[in-house]
Design goal:
single chain, mainly alpha, Glycosyltransferase, two-stranded antiparallel ribbon, 14 helices, 49% helix, disordered N terminus
């Protein structure tokens, strides 16, 4: 089984020696192109990004979205080159974000070979055993990886797509503040994946209250959007961002209670997919865009800076809206959700 490296960078402690981002407050439209142009310009010739080859899928998915938003052919070319890297380097055994990225490349290029590579991977698995293997990693890592696989399998029409969704619900029931590295981010990415792949109905996260954490007692899938929205900061320095923990406290000395880029990215994706608060989606998008440097660099924390990775840029591009929504941002009108089309 492939090594269980989580295809996200750490959200944890801010680096004391890092220089905070002072080139903030970009409008959303400018933030999209600043990130996209940087990713294009700094992509390696092999299609990956320096030092982040294992995170190519997340970056490719963001560039695919940026292409759909802007129509810039360079973003499509970079996404396709990244897809070529994934197919060649993975050896047919994909991370979840790689499979999702391949599905997005097929969607923007019309070339089904990328999605078919992911479908062949899924259709060849002992899916139950593969999903069980994620027990060996942190609970948040497990939720993230299985969530990405859930959407990837669904988009390419894999026969086992429903099994991935069931596995995701079970892993979600294990998330709690002191039992997972990224509690709110886990809720966000799970809500996104579940809403993209099936009904958000009265199915219980922990049906009998026997195996999950106490946080999930009585919680149904239909509750997830509201629950996620309750963890979004609505005032203060980090308004529009998301808290890191369910109890809205900092994880420890040197941590912030809210304002981390990835918590916001996956929180907003969850709200978009589940038709959550449009006001929350708008506030979150503005908060993320405000944390993008004019050079296109995206930092670990939206206001305080910290570490920076290409992956953060790719993830932010997955959240930024389509062009018509850019016009609506100044009027307070509703932002319409855009469903991903299945490829099979």
């Amino acid at each position: 089984m492939k090594r269980l490296l989580l295809a996200i960078c750490t959200v944890g402690m801010l680096l004391a020696a890092s220089v905070a981002n002072t080139a903030m407050a970009l409008p959303i439209g400018e933030a999209i192109e600043a990130i996209g142009d940087r990713l294009v310009n700094e992509q390696s010739l092999d299609g990956a990004w320096p030092g982040e080859a294992d995170f190519t899928g997340s970056i490719v998915a963001g560039l695919a979205n940026a292409y759909e938003i802007t129509g810039k052919a360079a973003y499509r070319t970079a996404a396709q080159l990244g897809g070529d890297y994934i197919v060649g380097a993975a050896g047919g055994n994909f991370y979840g974000d790689e499979a999702y990225g391949l599905a997005r490349v097929s969607a923007i290029t019309g070339d089904s070979s990328y999605a078919n590579a992911a479908k062949s991977f899924y259709d060849s698995l002992d899916t139950f055993a593969y999903i069980a293997g994620f027990r060996s990693t942190d609970r948040s890592n497990a939720v993230f990886c299985v969530a990405q696989h859930t959407v990837g399998a669904d988009m390419v029409g894999a026969a086992n797509a429903g099994i991935w969704r069931e596995g995701l619900i079970q892993y979600l029931s294990k998330i709690a503040d002191d039992e997972a590295l990224y509690p709110v981010m886990s809720l966000g990415v799970a809500t996104w994946a579940l809403a993209e792949t099936g009904p958000m109905d009265e199915t219980r996260v922990d049906p009998f209250g026997l195996v999950g954490e106490a946080y999930w007692e009585g919680v149904a899938l239909s509750d997830l959007a509201g629950l996620l929205g309750s963890h979004q900061a609505d005032s203060g320095a980090y308004a529009g961002s998301f808290y890191h923990r369910f109890d809205h406290t900092a994880a420890g000395p040197g941590y912030e209670a809210s304002g981390y880029t990835e918590d916001a990215v996956f929180g907003i994706l969850g709200l978009i997919a589940s038709s959550g608060s449009t006001g929350g989606i708008l506030a979150g998008r503005i908060a993320l865009a405000s944390g993008v440097a004019s050079t296109g660099i995206v930092y670990e924390h939206t206001w305080s800076g910290g570490a920076s990775y290409y992956t953060y840029g790719g993830e932010v591009l997955q959240v930024i809206p389509e062009p018509v929504s850019l016009l609506l941002l100044g009027t307070g009108m509703l932002l319409l959700r855009r469903k991903r089309n299945k490829l099979a």
